[in-house]
Design a protein that fits this description.
By secondary structure, this protein is an alpha/beta fold. It is 39% helix and 12% strand. It is built from 14 helices and 10 strands.
Length: 411
């Protein structure tokens, strides 16, 4: 699929908005309207990006009070103005043909029967191009809205995955025992688009209990790197060994369980941009939340400015902290702290740092979009067009993927 003159003209007219940053942006409302999000995704498809992942948010992982400090606030007035991602996937699915969509959500806000019906519907609309990533959620999506993340979370997540998968794989009445959502003669008559390839139900998370859950019932595992493992590939390898051992124990082929991640990076064109990225309030705000808890910072000798108990899933709210309070916290973050959670550098340098993770996850080669590049939020000039009429951020992605694939082939 090639870009038309109309596509290039659209990119030229809307380059300040395409994309917001990495895999984030199409799901956030902008004054240009919903149609721009659809056009954005059509162009990503034509550029060769194979997957687009949405996060089902009501509040983001950063802080609302600092948004006005960034150039993007001119084009995206409110970083918290999220569309419902399932509606966006439905609309985009009808106007694309190849790109595959996924959304990350939790096992609480939609009961498993509702989730299965949503997935069957999206699967029909997209003609088999949708998956779901599900975890135990974050309090920022619950407590502000009077919702609860009822204990026990991991046990609920496992039952949730088992029931959703069971409902996806039949259009006949089915009984699925359960402690939390027992299905009695449950009927979702709508079939999936391709009965041999229903939507994947992938689990998001880490730790031994989650790994055993994935080994038993999930269609895959997802995480975010390098922060989820404090920049220690060996720690992820230990988790994956637990997952694979459990899969073998229950008679599953461990090699049939794919492992993926959102790989958070800032791809830079020169040393000056590296300095700017390390000083960026967006990057400093993001790293406050890109490890499971503040205590993880101690693994590289850091000290979380908001304390050891600070956690994205438990204590974070995007509405917390005034701008002066955040700026005080940002000043305590070191360059080393940032580089442990977001790889900042040239595409070639970042690819070299990402190589151990790709090998741990078992990826023999990587596609475009393997890097979740925050650079487009830091450097507005990356959305300017190169001589071929394509954005500079896209050329950085091409360099990153090419170098990482070269390193994988040579290793």
């Amino acid at each position: 699929m090639t870009l038309t003159r109309e596509d290039l003209d659209f990119i030229g007219a809307h380059e300040p908005d395409l994309p917001l940053c990495g895999g984030i942006g199409a799901e956030i409302w902008r004054p240009a309207g919903f149609e721009q999000s659809i056009r954005h995704l059509q162009i990503m498809e034509k550029l060769g990006y194979q997957n687009w992942g949405f996060t089902e948010q009501t509040q983001s992982w950063t802080f609302r009070s600092m948004w006005g400090l960034l150039p993007d606030s001119e084009y995206v007035p409110d970083y918290e103005a999220f569309y419902d991602t399932t509606c966006l996937i439905a609309a985009a699915g009808m106007q694309t043909t190849k790109i595959r969509f996924s959304f990350t959500t939790d096992c609480y806000r939609r009961p498993p029967s509702v989730m299965a019906q949503t997935l069957k519907t999206l699967d029909q609309i997209t003609r088999g191009r949708v998956d779901v990533l599900v975890g135990t959620g974050e309090n920022k999506q619950f407590l502000p809205h009077g919702l609860e993340r009822t204990l026990p979370r991991i046990k609920r997540l496992e039952e949730y995955v088992r029931i959703v998968k069971g409902l996806l794989r039949t259009s006949e009445p089915v009984t699925i025992p359960g402690e939390f959502w027992p299905q009695q003669d449950a009927l979702l008559g709508c079939p999936v688009y391709n009965s041999d390839a229903p939507p994947s139900v992938i689990v998001v998370g880490g730790g031994p209990a989650t790994m055993r859950l994935v080994g038993r019932v999930a269609d895959g595992l997802s995480s975010y790197l390098p922060g989820a493992y404090a920049n220690i590939p060996e720690a992820m390898a230990e988790d994956l060994a637990i997952m694979r051992e459990e899969a073998e124990r229950v008679g599953r082929d461990p090699g049939s369980i794919p492992v993926g991640a959102g790989n958070t990076v800032v791809l830079c064109e020169n040393d000056s941009e590296i300095t700017r990225a390390l000083d960026s309030p967006y990057i400093r705000g993001s790293v406050l939340n890109l490890t499971p808890t503040g205590e993880h910072w101690k693994k590289w000798g850091g000290e979380h400015p908001l304390g050891d108990k600070y956690a994205l899933s438990m204590t974070h709210r995007s509405t917390n902290f005034s701008r002066p309070e955040l700026q005080d916290a940002f000043a305590k973050i070191t360059e080393n702290d940032i580089q442990q959670m977001i790889y900042v550098g040239s595409p070639e340098d970042v690819a070299a740092r990402m190589l151990p993770w790709a090998k741990v996850m078992g990826h023999p080669q990587v596609p475009l979009g393997y890097a979740l590049d925050f650079g487009a939020a830091v450097f507005p000039e990356h959305r300017e067009l190169a001589e071929d009429g394509l954005p500079r951020w896209h050329h950085l992605q091409l360099r990153f993927a090419a170098e990482l694939n070269r390193l994988l082939a040579a290793s």
